[in-house]
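In the design runs reported in the main text, the only information available to the sequence generator was the tokenized backbone. The following block is the verbatim input for one such run; it is reproduced so that readers can re-run the procedure and compare outputs position by position.
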């Protein structure tokens, strides 16, 4: 449910808020980790590399769709906060129709371009058949993935963040079992791994629909609600398309890195894929703290508490840096053992390269931690230009490093593409936030009751420093609980403002 972040020790409320987001991110990454372990051990390094070669292409198209469909839930959250039940239903209908239209386009068109696109990305010929099969099956099941993300988003939009996490966890467990069955027992190859994910997501869609039917009457769409207007369609697209384009910008960088890897051969692709699976779990930890920092600053800005924002961002930064060190040290010391979980014997070159990538990332995770927190804080304060500029800087740095350093130093050069992108973004973020920090210090402290904020994270992929998360740069109102009888008596006798001041002094949410 919605939670206020305007009282209590800043580091503690940020950490507690980040935990459910972290669990959702980690569970999502387990899909990819399960595929990689089963494929790598049962089918071999070549098949693992083939699956890895599909990542950027899937990220480009499905990441865009994930971002857009999550954006469709933001008007729903706003309507729910306004207690406009008719607008909630019409928003759900509009988002459903748009998600369905995008699903049809992806399902019909994307499988046809999968093979040519992988060839254009210079996928090694020995990987192309399996990579094409994996991509086509994934695109054929795109509707299940998109509708699960959309349904999860609209459930979160009305203040319930736990139910989507439960369904995601069940889907992940089912996916793991199906991958083992279809790849390890039935011998369906990499196509079985893709099909397992599609089936697991489809089951989750059914669970979400049944939950909404039984428990969430506010989301029940009536026949008249399906006659949506052009203005409603444009409003949803206005919110959703920028989130999709954000994912596309990220994907362009990953495509460039993938091309550089493909030119280095199948072993390089396999090493990078394996290390990325481990790395994605670390990124999920740090990304959750960044999203929590964004929501924290948004609520405290609405509550006129610049002092809490200043303390909270500093504490969140140290918390994230400490987390980065705690994650990075095992990657540096035990990277080879972690990689061995994914590949069998006789792959020493792949193991050595993957362990090198984990070590390089482990040494530079602190910069990624600072990036997530400061960018999240600026987004929570309502800034869009600097966060967008950092995304462009990351793209330029990542592409430049992959092309220039990859050509000069091979795999080692490509490995540095992510850390250099993080550092380049941080160079811009630190002075930008420092200016905001000083500005907040000059603002008066006028405690008010902040509107609770509902985060709507996209259940999507993670790459480099970016998770495809929708960070709402302002308060999305959530419905307040009804006032107690005692509250109403106090207001009648003493006045609303006086009662709120007393509650604020005692640390009680009014």
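Verbatim output:
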């Amino acid at each position: 449910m919605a939670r206020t972040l305007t009282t209590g020790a800043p580091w503690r409320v940020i950490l507690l808020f980040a935990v459910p987001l972290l669990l959702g991110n980690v569970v999502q990454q387990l899909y990819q980790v399960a595929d990689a372990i089963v494929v790598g051990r049962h089918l071999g390094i070549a098949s693992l590399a083939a699956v890895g070669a599909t990542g950027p292409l899937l990220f480009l198209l499905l990441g865009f769709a994930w971002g857009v469909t999550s954006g469709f839930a933001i008007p729903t959250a706003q309507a729910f906060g306004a207690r406009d039940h008719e607008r909630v239903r019409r928003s759900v209908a509009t988002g459903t129709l748009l998600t369905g239209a995008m699903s049809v386009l992806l399902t019909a068109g994307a499988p046809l371009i999968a093979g040519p696109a992988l060839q254009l990305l210079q996928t090694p010929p020995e990987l192309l058949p399996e990579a094409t099969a994996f991509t086509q099956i994934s695109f054929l099941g795109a509707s299940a993935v998109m509708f699960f993300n959309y349904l999860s988003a609209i459930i979160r939009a009305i203040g319930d963040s736990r139910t989507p996490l439960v369904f995601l966890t069940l889907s992940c467990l089912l996916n793991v079992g199906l991958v083992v069955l279809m790849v390890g027992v039935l011998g369906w190859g990499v196509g079985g791994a893709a099909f397992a994910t599609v089936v697991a997501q489809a089951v989750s869609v059914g669970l979400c629909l049944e939950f909404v039917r039984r428990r969430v009457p506010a989301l029940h769409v009536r026949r008249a609600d399906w006659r949506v207007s052009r203005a409603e369609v444009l409003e949803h697209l206005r919110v959703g398309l920028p989130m999709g384009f954000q994912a596309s910008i990220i994907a362009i960088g990953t495509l460039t890195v993938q091309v550089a890897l493909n030119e280095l051969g199948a072993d390089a692709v396999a090493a990078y894929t394996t290390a990325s699976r481990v790395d994605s779990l670390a990124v999920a930890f740090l990304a959750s703290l960044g999203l929590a920092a964004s929501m924290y600053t948004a609520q405290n800005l609405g509550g006129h508490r610049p002092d809490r924002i200043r303390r909270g961002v500093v504490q969140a930064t140290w918390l994230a840096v400490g987390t980065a060190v705690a994650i990075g040290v095992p990657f540096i010391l035990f990277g080879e053992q972690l990689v061995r979980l994914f590949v069998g014997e006789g792959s020493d070159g792949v193991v050595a390269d993957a362990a090198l990538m984990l070590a390089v990332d482990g040494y530079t995770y602190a910069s990624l931690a600072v990036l997530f927190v400061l960018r999240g804080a600026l987004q929570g304060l309502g800034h869009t230009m600097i966060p967008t500029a950092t995304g462009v800087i990351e793209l330029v740095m990542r592409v430049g490093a992959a092309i220039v350093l990859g050509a000069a130093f091979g795999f080692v050069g490509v490995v540095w593409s992510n850390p250099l992108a993080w550092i380049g973004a941080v160079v811009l973020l630190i002075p930008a936030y420092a200016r905001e920090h000083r500005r907040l210090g000059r603002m008066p402290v006028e405690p008010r009751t902040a509107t609770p904020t509902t985060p709507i994270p996209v259940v999507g992929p993670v790459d480099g420093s970016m998770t495809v998360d929708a960070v709402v740069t302002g308060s999305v109102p959530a419905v307040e609980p009804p006032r107690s009888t005692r509250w109403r008596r106090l207001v009648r006798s003493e006045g609303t403002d006086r009662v709120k001041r007393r509650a604020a002094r005692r640390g009680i949410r009014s």
